[in-house]
Amino acid sequence: SSAPCARPVPACPLRPGSPLLVRLSMAAEMLVSVDGVALTRAPATGVLTLDMGGGPNLINPTMVSALMAAMDAAEKAEHPKALIVSASGKWLCNGLDIAWMATNPKETPAFLESFWRFLARLLVLDCHTVAAINGHAFGAGLFISLACDWRIMRTGHGFANFPELNIGLRLSNPFAELIKAKLSPSTFRAGVLMCQKFNSAEALAAGVIDQECSIEALPTLAERMAIERLPANLKLRNFNPEAFITMKKELYPEAYRALNLGVYGATPESRL
């Protein structure tokens, strides 16, 4: 049970897959465009799309700053809304910018902590979130996907992978807690301790993703998944965004706590 909603959310008058919806969703409003990262909104539905760009989309301070700007706008966007996170090209995200970290060791702790804070915000955003995995999702790219509520991955190209074992890095408590919150112990073990690469079929079988489709169908199916999860289409009587945030924190308390409060270099034995 939950407290009565102080901010009732209006209904979305269009149904998923309707021809009118398809035409109207093409006219997207640009909310943020920073360093190759864009956040757009489809006025007809309220669906937001965070486009990470068309390159390897390595996570470094510039990328984190752009993602934070997009998250600011996503959090402020009016309801009803849902968020799709995707990119273009052969990568969703090719992981942390290891080269930047190697040449900026003093700045690395603050950088990683800022990325964890972004993941914490994405994890408990006040609407449904869909990761549309358009290509490789390595390391940080997979963590971004796991921070979303739902995941759909293209077939035929791309792997989901935790590369830490392969490149000689530890996992860190915040990343580990996010994995444990979203994946089964057997998948966590194979992915981390064996550095298993999951193609879309393997990721679906292991519960890493919820659906697979061709790259041509990915934008449409990701949008459909987002629209189907709008409050009106879930037939919710009294959707409360603040209660939804709290619900997510209750579902993933250790992951949210670690991502929101984690300190670089903390040992696995330490408590936050």
Supply the key terms.
alpha/beta, three-stranded parallel β-sheet, 12 helices
Short description:
The chain is of the alpha/beta class and 272 residues long.
Description:
By secondary structure, this protein is an alpha/beta fold. Helices cover 42% and strands 16% of the residues. The chain contains 12 helices and 10 strands. It has helices at residues 19-25, 61-76, 98-103, 108-123, 140-147, 164-167, 173-182, 185-193, 200-206, 218-228, 241-251, 253-261; strands spanning 29-34, 37-41, 47-51, 82-86, 91-93, 128-133, 136-138, 150-154, 160-161, 211-213. The strands form 2 sheets. Strands 1-2-3-4-6-8-10 form a 7-stranded mixed beta sheet, sandwiched between helices. Helix 4 packs parallel to helix 5 (140-147) and helix 4 (108-123) runs antiparallel to helix 12 (253-261). The longest helix has 16 residues, at 61-76. The protein is globular and about 45 Å long. The two termini are 30 Å apart. The model is unreliable at 1-25 (pLDDT under 50).
Question: Gap between N and C termini, in Å?
Answer: 30 Å
Overall SS class? alpha/beta
Could you tell me the number of beta strands?
A: 10
Sheet having the most strands: 7 strands, mixed
Q: What is the C-alpha radius of gyration, as a whole number of Å?
A: 18 Å
Outline the low-pLDDT stretches: 1-25
Task: Output the helix-strand order.
Answer: HEEEHEEHHEEHEEHHHHEHHH
Residue-averaged pLDDT: 91
The helicity comes to 40-55%
SS strand fraction: 15-25%
Give the overall shape: globular
Strand arrangement, major sheet: 1-2-3-4-6-8-10
Number of helices: 12
